[in-house]
């Protein structure tokens, strides 16, 4: 059926396209944004831009059509132009859409953020003919996004500061714990650490059936060094003694400075070997702590006296073991120094088993 030489289908198609265009213009007119199409020429000549450009920027659409008053590029913030060009060029090269945020410089007021989704239009020969896109005002959203980004950054900084403070606190605690359990001069475990270790070792031995050996060590002629050469020389000697005692240690052994010139050496092992090992370790200690200290009136020969006690055959609890080792050490001091003394020294006949270094 014809109507004035035009088919009904053609008329219907034209009406449908007009309705689509009216709907599109109505929808975009209600949005805080605008549509545009421009040529792919040196000036990006604007062919169409919707009325929303006025709502967003304060510029009339007619200002941009055919670049009558200004081109669209002039409305983009200068600091954002490079990134806009780069995003559009990359998208065109890949024949995909671009999705970019940038600032528009409005006719009046501060720059505002927009988001553009656009793409290229190619002709049948594959040549880029137009650029077109939809631009929407995201200023309010951008404020929220920027606030969120700043909050996240502030949170990250706060977490880093908290982590640093936590590390400092942990380090301070470690240092405090170390100071609380170590001698400041020699960095050996102190009396408190020794008693804690002693209780732990004896409890372990009670469960396993092993034995523990305790050596009480007291330096000989330490007072002579202090009186002759001064306390600095005495401190240096104590540090030297501590290093020598460390050299005798095995991985499971424990040595501590109890105070002054008194030290304790603690070990554990098979019960049947405990006495033999204790004597062997004591002899090594006697040998290592023979230290000659130069002095103007003649060298001072420093040595040590060692009391040796065994758990559980000679003492059955920590206090008794300490008391016995301490007593044996003083027996050695009384009988001439420079020797190790075992519990045999307390058995009749007087003198018992005593070794002289």
Overview of this protein structure:
- This protein has 357 residues and is α+β, with helices and mostly antiparallel strands.
- The protein has three domains: 31-137, Beta-Lactamase (2-Layer Sandwich); 149-181; 191-356, 2-Layer Sandwich (Alpha-Beta Plaits), CATH 3.30.70.270.
- 46% of the residues lie in helices and 25% in strands.
- The chain is built from ten helices and 14 strands.
- It has helices spanning 8-29, 52-57, 61-64, 81-94, 139-181, 191-208, 222-229, 231-248, 274-288, 318-334; strands at 2-3, 6-7, 33-39, 46-49, 98-104, 112-122, 128-137, 211-220, 254-259, 262-269, 291-293, 300-311, 339-341, 354-356.
- The strands form three sheets. Strands 8, 9, 10, 11, 12, 13 and 14 form a seven-stranded mixed beta sheet that branches. The protein has a five-stranded antiparallel beta sheet with strand order 4-3-7-6-5, with helices on both faces. The protein has a two-stranded antiparallel ribbon with strand order 1-2.
- A hairpin with a 2-residue loop joins strand 1 (2-3) and strand 2.
- The longest helix is centred in the middle third of the chain and has 43 residues, at 139-181.
- The radius of gyration is 46 Å and the shape is rod-shaped.
- Residues 350-357 have low confidence and may be disordered.
State the main characteristics:
3 domains; rod-shaped; Beta-Lactamase; alpha+beta; 357 residues; 7-stranded mixed sheet; 10 helices; 5-stranded antiparallel sheet; Alpha-Beta Plaits
């Amino acid at each position: 059926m014809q109507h004035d030489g035009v088919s009904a289908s053609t008329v219907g198609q034209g009406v449908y396209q007009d309705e689509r265009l009216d709907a599109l213009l109505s929808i975009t007119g209600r949005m805080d944004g605008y549509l545009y199409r421009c040529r792919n020429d040196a000036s990006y000549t604007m062919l169409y831009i919707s009325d929303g450009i006025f709502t967003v920027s304060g510029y009339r659409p007619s200002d941009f059509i055919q670049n009558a008053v200004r081109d669209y590029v002039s409305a983009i913030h200068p600091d954002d132009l490079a990134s806009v060009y780069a995003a559009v060029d990359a998208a065109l090269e890949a024949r995909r859409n671009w999705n970019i945020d940038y600032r528009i410089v409005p006719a009046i007021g501060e720059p505002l953020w927009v988001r553009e989704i656009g793409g290229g239009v190619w002709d049948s020969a594959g040549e880029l003919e137009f650029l077109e896109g939809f631009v929407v005002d995201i200023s309010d959203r951008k404020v929220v996004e920027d606030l969120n980004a700043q909050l996240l950054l502030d949170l990250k900084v706060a977490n880093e500061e908290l982590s640093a403070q936590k590390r400092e606190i942990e380090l301070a605690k470690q240092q405090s714990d170390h100071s609380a359990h170590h001698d400041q001069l020699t960095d050996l475990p102190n009396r408190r650490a020794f008693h804690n270790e002693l209780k732990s070792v004896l409890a372990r031995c009670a469960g396993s059936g092993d034995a523990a050996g305790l050596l009480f060590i007291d330096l000989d002629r330490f007072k002579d060094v202090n009186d002759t050469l001064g306390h600095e020389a005495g401190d240096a000697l104590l540090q030297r003694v501590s290093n020598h005692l460390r050299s005798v240690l095995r991985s499971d052994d424990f040595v501590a400075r109890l105070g002054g010139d008194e030290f304790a050496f603690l070990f554990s092992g098979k019960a049947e070997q405990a006495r033999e090992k204790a004597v062997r370790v004591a002899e090594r200690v006697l040998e290592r702590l023979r230290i000659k200290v130069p002095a103007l009136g003649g060298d001072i020969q420093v040595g040590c006296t060692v009391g040796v006690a065994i758990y559980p055959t000679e003492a059955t609890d920590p206090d008794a073991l300490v008391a016995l080792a301490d007593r044996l050490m003083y027996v050695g001091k009384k009988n001439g120094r420079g020797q190790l003394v075992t519990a045999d020294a307390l058995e009749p006949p007087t003198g018992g088993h005593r070794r002289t270094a």
